[in-house]
Amino acid sequence: MLIREPTLADVDRIADVHTRARASYYQTGGLLADSTADPAGADHRREAWTQAVESPDHTIYCAVIDDKVVGAVAMGPALTPTPDGTPAGQLFQIHVDPPHWSKGIGTRLHATFLTYLRRTNTPTGLLEVWQQNTRALLFYAHHGWSPTGTHRPGPHQTTYQSMHLKLPTPA
To answer: Which pTM value belongs to this model?
Structure first.
């Protein structure tokens, strides 16, 4: 597996991976397939990934196996400040194609985010995760993330939970 920066030629595949991963975790979390299969949503994700790849404010990497994109991670400066004013980086999303789950790809993409935090001298990571996505909640808890106690509305009367990660202070 190779972790690399994507090009615009990778955007369609990244958006497809995002769409499949999203459908899987939303359906596992109790949403009906019809509510996750909106073609306009897929177009929106493709446009958003195109903008992210082109943006100087976002850092994007993709996971590639046999020249096929199987995962992606997006990160950048935090969208909201931390309560104590500590500089933070935002983990916007990690997506892995469901047939490749539990093979270490998400962990490698997460490690790429940690490298980003260290490279930017940012001691705190922030993210939001859908509260029904128990798989992601367990993944992030395993990697040291903790709930911040804040939530925002999600689909069908659910919520997104904010989490944070404090990097250890170098000795």
So the answer is: 0.90
